[in-house]
Amino acid sequence: MLYISDDIAIMNEGQLLEDLIKESGMKFDTVAEKIGKSYHTLLRKRKLDRIDDDIWIKIGTILNIDISQHIPRLKKFVKNSYASNSNEALESRLNELELQVRTDSDDILFLKNRIADYDLMIEAKNEVIRQQSETIKRLEKELKKYR
């Protein structure tokens, strides 16, 4: 874990922090990408919605980079990256929900067919009961004749 201040830390995702500290001559886009990953982890872990400029400067100091001139670009990168990740997450969730709806629809169709089958069985049993009832009435009439 890389502590930025007393209450803010960037979580280590794999070798991310070692890479950031070891690579002093890396391109800014690489740094931005790596900070972006850490930024999102930070947001998830600490439930923050943004990192203030002074924290970006502290991150730049840790990376031995004058980051102050890049803050607007970095904020834009992270915002776009976050939006992209959010869209991917939303699309993934939408796909899961669509699959669930299809599964639920199949289950509902199965249950409707089952209910239709039971309705037919009930109808058939009611017909048997009606016929038996008629038979009983007929037999009672015949029994009355012989009494």
Would you mind describing this structure in some detail?
Keywords: Coiled coil. By secondary structure, the chain is mainly α. It has a domain of 89 residues. It has a two-stranded antiparallel ribbon with strand order 1-2. A hairpin with a 5-residue loop joins strand 1 and strand 2. Helix 2 packs across helix 4. The longest helix has 76 residues.
List the helices and strands and how they pair.
Blueprint: E1 2-3, E2 9-10, H1 16-22, H2 28-46, H3 53-62, H4 71-146
Antiparallel strand pairs: 1-2
Helix pairs in contact: 2-4
Question: What fraction of residues sit in β-strands?
Answer: under 5%
Largest beta sheet: strand ordering: 1-2
Task: Calculate the mean pLDDT score and round it.
Answer: 67
* Number of strand elements: 2
Order of helices and strands: EEHHHH
Helicity range of the residues?
over 70%
Q: Helix tally?
A: 4
Q: Which structural category fits the helices and strands?
A: mainly alpha
General form: rod-shaped
Biggest β-sheet: count, sense, barrel? 2 strands, antiparallel
Span between termini: 101 Å
As an assembly, this protein is single chain
Which value, in Å, is the CA radius of gyration?
Answer: 36 Å
Detail the poorly predicted runs.
1-24
Coiled coil: 80-142
Keywords: Coiled coil
